[in-house]
Amino acid sequence: MSIIQTIGLCKSFGEKLALDGVSLSIPENGIFGMLGPNGAGKTTLIRIINRITIPSSGEVLFSGRPITQRDVEKIGYLPEERGLYRKMKVGDQALYLARLKGMSQYDARMGLKEWFERFGIESWWDKKVEELSKGMAQKVQFIITVVHKPSLMILDEPFSGFDPVNADIIRKEILRLRDEGATIVLSTHDMASVEELCDEIALVNKGKLVITGRVDDIRRRYGNNNVELVYTDADGCHTQVLLRDTDGASTLRTFLDKGVQINSYKELMPRMNDIFINLVKGDESNSQDENLTSEGEEHNSKGEEQL
Amino acid sequence: MNFRTTGIIISREYLNKVRKKSFLITTFLVPVLFAALCIVPSIIMVASKEDAKKVAVIDDSGIVMPTLSDSETVCFSDFYGRDLDSVKTALESLGIDAVLYVSAIEAENKTVQADIFSVKPLGVTLSENLNNRINKAVESYRVDSYGIEGLADIMKDVKADIKLHSYTIDEEGKENISESEVYMIVSLILGMIIYMFITLFGASVMSSVIEEKSSRVVEILISSVKTTELMFGKIIGMALVALTQFFLWIVLTSVIVGVVGAVSGNSLLGGQNPAEMLQTVGGVDAGQAEAIAGAVSEPGELSMIISTLSNLNFGQILFCFVVFFVFGYMLYASFFAAIGSASENEADSQQLQIPLTIPLLIAFFIAFYAFKAPDSAVVFWGSMIPFTSPIVMLARLPFGVPVWEIALSLVLLVATFALCAWISAKIYRVGILMFGKKSTWKDLWKWFRQK
Question: FRET pair for B150, CA 20 to 30 Å: which of A198, B130, B159, B252?
Fold first, then answer.
């Protein structure tokens, strides 16, 4: 079941076509990565889902039926351009924005208290936003996005502006929210966190949907099934790449027969970063079937170990 | 429109503005100033009556001194024959404030030369007063010099001194004393207040929109509420602030004036020369003050003002003020909001504001004309055309306006407001998310047509 489904979304600003027939589906309960280069139409797509912008044509379904204004109460949105009222107190401001999302005064106060305690920032309640540092304001903004327990959260670059410690806190909160059943749409340029967090992605370029699907499937599809073998013999540690048409089993047997110690044997999957660059570049030169090469430097992947 | 969220927006706008120091200061300071305007001139008058200036006169012409008589503010002493320079240097030791020197008459052109010397500068009233007396003395000398018998009496006889009394006749044919000068002042005040309110609070709406846009909080807001709810919530919230301020002004001013009046007795508020009062207030120059006060400076002048004021239909004026302010303000505020949505900072908005400030200024000038010719064509049309009607109609009101004209003007105003609010909302919806480049009226037109 998908929480959001878009059908042939188009949006034009005057002459410029920002979205051109985007149809995608965001499955419930998971983390969905919204990728694309700058100016690809991601923000427009996100704004249409949020009902900030009206599409020129096409439709958005929320849980299978056309989205209405009431549904925005079930969406939490963290825009890329952060902003709060500078002269307003943190607590008042959070209460105001939570109530606009349909919470009662009481529920909003309770929910915010809980989140402020979780982040250990109760003392900020009566501070004005202009007294907070950028990172502090980001934390407040994250709370405002999630306090009304939305079933869909759209986070645009949620880690930008955070130091590694705080970015990790946010990362853990995102995972916790997913475990509690929320759907999270993550728009980011940080491909490492896409690989780490996202179950599915959609890549948008020049207003068009380039690819969508499960992260693992995409990486495998754009990989070349090369395998990396690491072994230790009398001379020390060696790494060897086995091309895809090599007979893996017999090669492995040869090595084993030599009596070397096999450290690892794993499929080389391209990094999302490379897939991204190649797809976007390929899109530009209109040749999508360009060979994707990325073997050799793969050390950080989630690729399954087969030995 | 979702009334719950609109209500939340209204209450935030309202509370946010009302809690501001600037609001509290203007709300409580202006009544004090209003009250001071009523009370202080009287206090000054009472206080300044004590010290009459002592003026020494060395009159070589011999025609001026006989015409000088002591009054409450000045007393003269004849220093004829004393040396001017020695008196000049010894002013303080002689205990006099000034020395007036009048030269001998120049036979050729029958004139004198007059100088006055003092340590401290003389008041404007005193020197004008002296100047008048010297002129009169010279005039009568000239009249006498023709040697025509009885010329002085003829001159006096020729001079007309007629005061026009005006009355308004109500439906029962009853005559009411009416002083058009009083209407003029009331009309001026009403026109000015409504002009001020529309400009100030309209600009407030605009800067509030700019604040949300430049701080980017607007994107979160409109992911929760519709842009129309946000825009109207803001406009209505600000209107409530304005009405709160207006009523607090009325209440506080009357409380202060009432309390001070009760404490000091009514003597402070009445019984003095209105011309002097107007001059002391300072806003009106002497000539104008004479003109205004001249009309009412006969016995019972204060009771005449009061009776004129009581002829005014305060219920109608208050009702019209509120209604014309609310819709006039909303008409302009919706445009101000649209302009705010197109600007990222106040400086950007300057240029876009010009088409809004021009009709406001025109309205203000027509309002000034309204008390000169309340029934002239320009004033009539000014009070009908929605962009000027709130200000001009209020200025016209004290002179009496037929109910059908008020109703027609209101209907036109409300209809125009509805149309303009719709246009503004369309511009606002697009503009609020436009960042980066400075917008022009052409952009606004494009946004309006964008679906």
Answer: B130
List C-alpha distances in Å: A234 to A177, B208, B222, B300, B322: 50, 75, 67, 125, 97
Angle at A232 between CA A229 and CA A236, to 5 degrees: 125
Co-location of A168 and A50 in the same domain: yes
- Does B215 contact A at CB distance below 8 Å? yes
Q: Domains in chain B, start-ordered, CATH in brackets?
A: 3-43+178-449 (no CATH), 51-158 (3.40.190.10)
pLDDT in tens, B62-91: 888 888 877 777 888 888 888 888 888 888
In this model, does residue A216 exceed pLDDT 60?
Answer: yes
- CA end-to-end span of chain B, whole Å? 19
Between CA B330 and CA B139 the distance in angstroms is: 61
Residue of B21, B182, B211 lying closest to A130 (CA atoms): B211
**pLDDT of B362 over the 60 cut:** yes
Q: Are residues A74 and A167 in the same domain?
A: yes
Domain that includes residue A240, residue range:
223-307
pLDDT of residue A80 exceeding 80, the answer is yes
Q: Do B223 and A75 touch (CB under 8 A)?
A: yes
With a cut of 70, say whether residue A220 has pLDDT above it: yes
Asked if residue B307 has pLDDT above 80, the reply is no
- Interchain contact A11–B (C-beta under 8 A): no
Q: Do A99 and B433 touch (CB under 8 A)?
A: no
pLDDT band at B282 (very low <50, low <70, confident <90, very high): very low
Q: What is the spatial distance between Cα B343 and Cα B207, in angstroms, rounded to a whole number?
A: 10
* Residue A291 belongs to a domain: yes
Residue A10 has a pLDDT of 92
**Which is more confidently placed, B301 or B152?**
B152
pLDDT, position B358: 92
Please report whether residue A201 resides in a domain.
yes
Strand spans (E) along B61-186: 74-78, 98-102, 114-118, 167-169, 175-177
Interval B141-145 mean pLDDT? 83
Residue of B nearest to A76 (CA): B223
Chain A interface includes B9 (CB < 8 A)? yes
User: Chain A contact for B276, CB < 8 A?
Assistant: no
**ipTM summary value:** 0.80
Residue type, A136: M
Query: Cβ contacts (< 8 Å) between A75 and chain B: which residues?
Result: 223
A81: domain CATH number? Answer: 3.40.50.300
Task: Flag whether the pTM goes above 0.90.
Answer: no
Q: For residues B427 and B393, give the distance between their C-alpha atoms in angstroms, rounded to a whole number.
A: 29
Chain B residues in contact with A69 (beta carbon < 8 A) = 2, 226
Query: CA B137, CA B142: separation in Å to the nearest integer?
Result: 9
Shortest Cα distance from B217 to chain A (angstroms)? 4
Residue B5 or B278, more confident: B5
User: In this complex, do B224 and A72 lie within 8 Å of one another by their Cβ atoms?
Assistant: yes
Whether B8 has its CB under 8 Å from any CB of chain A: the answer is: yes
Tell me the chain A residues in contact with residue B450 when contact means C-beta distances shorter than 8 Å.
Answer: 13-14
Task: Find chain A residues with C-beta within 8 A of B225's C-beta.
Answer: 100
